[in-house]
Amino acid sequence: MIVKVKVPSPGESITEVEVSAWLVKTGDYVNKGQTIAEIDSDKATLEISAEENGIITLMVKKGEKIRVGDTLCSIDSSKEYLITEDKYKEKDNIEKTSSINFKIPSPASKKILKEKNISIESIQGTGKHGRITKSDCIFHLEENNTPFVSNTSIGRTITTYRSKTITPLSSLRRKLSERLVDVKNKTASLTTFNEVDMQEIFFIRKKYKDLFKKKHGVNLGFMSFFTLSCIRALKLYPDVNAMINEGEKINFEYYDISIAISGPKGLMVPVIRNAEHLSFRGIEEEIFKLSTRVYNGTISIDEMTGGTFTITNGGIFGSMLSTPIINPPQSAILGMHKIMERPVVINGSIEIRPIMYLALSYDHRIIDGRESVGFLVSVKESLENPIKLLMGGSEENINKKLEL
Is 19 within a domain? Predict the structure, then answer.
């Protein structure tokens, strides 16, 4: 039986998607539930799974646009897979195909194929059973690129091979590019900076992190402290938790905090809904759940829609300072950065402290300098005095806040 795999709806109002990647090729045998392709919409990347066991055929080309509900590919479920890698058989056992030569690349050649964007069908494998080797890939590159000859200053002639890879942008990346340019063109974006001494946060995490992990099954990370600090600051400076819509300012009386998370598909910004009602434990559990879904490629559009304020952490990549771009239609975003030990003056003496630079990018159309600077100062106060401002001021209240 021929099973047609249809394009599912990625979300409301989306009628067209782009085939961003095929994880199998025509003639491959696939198992039910196996991920076979990825499709891009304007908002997210979705994985497509095989609906039956069988041989895949009639695939839509990578990069081609296709409407929701149309056929992405077909699966011939009338064939079963033998234990050996090189044969199929009919279900009625009447006909068996001849041996099929599978083109399996070695680990080293896989890396070259991916980096150079080389189609596996274009390589002639010389290894055992047609296996593609690293040497096969190097030979292919040499055969298909024009040598570049340069003369060195000491008269030697060196022949090198120069190549480049051209990859079309996915629908998701194109949409992101448009949004980023739109933000720069349609907002009066400014950035203000401050620094925070993270020593008290370090002390608290060192003292309670093992017990917290044992009790709740998640880490006591920095993000819960930053999220709660931002919520406190947003309550003090409500225009930072606002947006402009057709000449009107909308102030949100709830706090949906968007957390920027880098995954295999790029930067995703899922939302912690009503974060003002969550404890340290609740925030860390939400971040763990959302991060796992981003890394697994299962994050949904609904989970990334909305948000009233965004926190992004470039410090995990080593960034010391940056000016983050506002996540529209929001009006502000807080940038965290790498924690570095620095000499600072404490009560007239020089001490070494773990210091992080903070950056707040904001839309100056509705947020003035007083609000932006005041917001950052409030975040700094909460992070430098977490026991008093975030945890109730006593050992008993700390245990309550951490639910220990």
Answer: no
Whose structure tokens read 């041989």?
55
Rounded CA separation 81/87 (Å): 7
368 annotated active-site: yes
- Is the bond preceding 8 in cis, omega lying within 30 degrees of 0? no
Question: Looking at the domain assignment, is residue 68 inside a domain?
Answer: no
Q: Tell me the CB-side half-sphere exposure of residue 346, using CA atoms within 13 A.
A: 12
Q: Evaluate whether 38 touches 59 at the Cβ level (below 8 Å).
A: no
The answer to whether position 232 is within a domain reads: yes
Residue 289 lies in domain: 187-401
Number of alpha carbons in the 13 Å side-chain half-sphere of residue 222: 19
- CB-CB neighbours of 83 under 10 Å: 5
Q: Which amino acid is at 240?
A: V
- Tell me the chain's radius of gyration from C-alpha atoms: 27
Extended strands (E) in 77-188: 79-81, 88-90, 147-151, 157-161
Active site residue 364: yes
Q: Which residue has the tokens 């995703």?
A: 268
Q: Is residue 50 part of a domain?
A: no
Closest alpha carbon to 45 in 158, 230, 173, 159: 173
Instruction: Give the up-direction half-sphere exposure of residue 167: CA atoms within 13 A in the CB hemisphere.
Output: 14
CATH of the domain at 234: 3.30.559.10
Residue 333: φ, ψ to 5°: -145, 135
Give the count of domains, the chain. 1
CA dihedral 168, 170, 175, 181 (to 10 degrees): -40
Distance of CA 209 to the CA centre of its chain: 26
**Measured distance CA(397)–CA(77) in Å, rounded:** 61
For the chain, the residue count is 404
- Amino acid letter, 359: A
> Residue 317 has what DSSP assignment?
G
SS in 3 state form for 336-355? ECCCEEEEEEECCEEEEEEE
Question: 282-317, pLDDT tens digit by residue?
Answer: 999 999 999 999 888 788 888 988 899 999 999 999
Environment class of residue 9 by beta-carbon count within 10 Å: exposed (0-12), middle (13-18) or buried (19+)? middle
Q: Please write the tens of the pLDDT for every residue from 354-384.
A: 999 999 999 999 999 999 999 999 999 999 9
pTM > 0.85: no
Distances in Å between the Cα of 37 and the Cα atoms of 45, 112, 384 are: 10, 21, 48
**Structure-block tokens of residue 198:** 């993270």
Q: Which one of the listed residues 70, 182, 277, 364 is annotated catalytic?
A: 364
